Description:
The complex is a heterodimer of chains A (342) and B (321). Helix content of chain A is 42%, strand content 9%. By secondary structure, chain A is α/β, with parallel strands linked by helices. Chain A has one domain (14-320): Thiamin diphosphate (ThDP)-binding fold, Pyr/PP domains (Rossmann fold, 3-Layer(aba) Sandwich), CATH 3.40.50.970. Chain A has a five-stranded parallel beta sheet with strand order 1-2-3-7-6, with helices on both faces. In chain A, strands 4-5 form a two-stranded antiparallel ribbon. The longest helix of chain A is centred in the first third of the chain and has 29 residues, at 15-43. Chain A is globular and about 55 Å long. In chain B, 57% of the residues are buried.
Amino acid sequence: MLQTALETEPSQVTKSERDIHVSAFRFMLLARMLDDKLAALYRAGKIHGGVFLGRGQEALSAALGISLRKGDVFAPLIRDAAGRLAFGETVLDSVRTYFGSPYGPMRARDGNVHRGRPEEGMLPMISYLGAMISVVNGILFARRFQKKFGTVGAACIGDGATSTGSFHEALNQAAVEKLPLVLVIADNQYAYSTPTSRQFACESLAHKAAGYGVAVHTVDGTDFPACMKILGQAVARARNDGAPQLVVANLLRLCGHGEHDPSDYVDSNLKNSPLGRDCLKVAEEFLLRKKWLDASQLAAMQDEIVHEIESAVAQAQREPAPDPFAEEWRAISTEKLSEGNF
Amino acid sequence: MSLTYLEAIREAQARALRDDPRVFIYGQDVGSFGGAFKATKNLAFEFPGRVLDSPISEDAMVGMAVGAAIEGLRPIIEMQFADFSLVGFNQIVNQAGTLFWRTNVPCPITVRLPFGGTSGSGPFHSQCVEAIYAHYPGLIVLTPATVEDAYSMLLEAVAMDDPVIFCEHKFLYYHLKAEKLPDEALPIGKARIAREGRDLTIVTYSAMVHEALEAAKELSAEGWEIEVVDLRSVKPLDTDTVVASVARTGKLLCVGEAWPWGGVTAEVVARVTAEGFGLLDAPPQRLNAKDTPVPYHPTLWAAHRPTARSVAAAARNLLRQ
Lengths: 342, 321
């Protein structure tokens, strides 16, 4: 078994450090078990459209989510169930959006991972993920404009989105405006099926930071305590310095792009490499070894999570489908200027 | 005192900044330089910290505006040329245009597009992009033709809770003048009868309103009375005023500076045909720019776009039917 970063450092464990790690782990486990449930529902034909899992990315995601505070801004990527939950999203919001419940935050107008509550700082992604970064910039800009300080904004993308123009424009914009943005790149080795060798030619995506004049942090995304430490530092630096931070995490997507994708193109050498280890297993072993959690507590946690997920799924499944005749079919808020449909 | 169309846009922004602390302006060269056309002249000095140069990043400019709007501000984005807004197209139509419908959170941004042809501007500084924005749900698309409308509609755009694509015509910037700024105006969504007539209705908008009015004057000397409807806003489109005019004249010519495939003129013809087919004494006609990129040389440019002369010729053909 591979050693993790924190274990090599002098131990100054406080109770709160234990608590925060256990709490983050619980969000990882909740996300994994929720993902597994959604995948099962997808295979049973109960979910319209796609299902996108965060398997293998939970440590990075939870570490970010738990480092953010209420009042911060979070623009997650499609594999950020753990971070969303840690930031405050409910299981019910997730399940309702997958089922297309009219009571979900997107009211069945948008589905699966395209969910959020902008008024609570959780941005619902559009499908061009790089495009969310400048929206986070705008919120951070507006706060400074209104002399509201102390909050940060996090945006998450994969290796694929670093090839988009909007990534470049937005990171440069954040640097020019000196905004407290934490831009997290989950380099999971594939953008859908495209390997990183066909995505970029630089040695590491971390090298991009110098070109934009932003601080950079790198982390092994499979290493739970390392993720906790690095993401915590990046968020704290953004908050204290008021300047953008780029975080590059290396890991491997342990699932298909979506559940429709058997992902047989993933190189088996990668799967068998340190990148291919399961961050959830790493985290569990870390906590058990540290005696921050014991087997019975873990089992109790799993039971509790099963109940939480099952009750949310049962509730969402009982809810009615959206009624097209009750739908307003109006895309603007100024009602008198709505054109109507013909 | 007299005031140009461009000065009216500057004055509207000054007033919006003065009256509403949530307003800020963000765009290329809009700061101390005052904008490529000087539409923000001196505003950076009068309103420190609220008129900001952006990097050449149309995508991020609009994205930032959407974020600021979510946070309760009222951003005005200046695209240096409407043509360049296409680089930010995704953010405009997919981010700004979908936000309210998806989340119930309004997106009050105003995107100013200096648009339309001027002599010598060529393919990438002349485009008319109103139809592509109007095609997407979630956006209001305005095309003021007068100094008064440029002023009042821009103020109304900034006050509105929805994303507004404000198409300000560069050809009108300097030569169109008014004696004073208006105290009151038609609301957005209402078309204006720019000239009354009984023989034929020309429906148009923006700079083409003036070509149509000149054509109407020419035809008046020949004994024809042409009614000119200025749409003012292409989305929403005031079908009622258009159909009422066609009811009076029985003949419809739609004139647009944009390209011929689809677009505003086709939309107007479709609506009049659907709602007022029985009112038409002749098949409705359209006159648009030619289906090529906008040419550079003045002689080619003048032939590419509709002019008073070609509008009058098209009207004569229709009047003889």
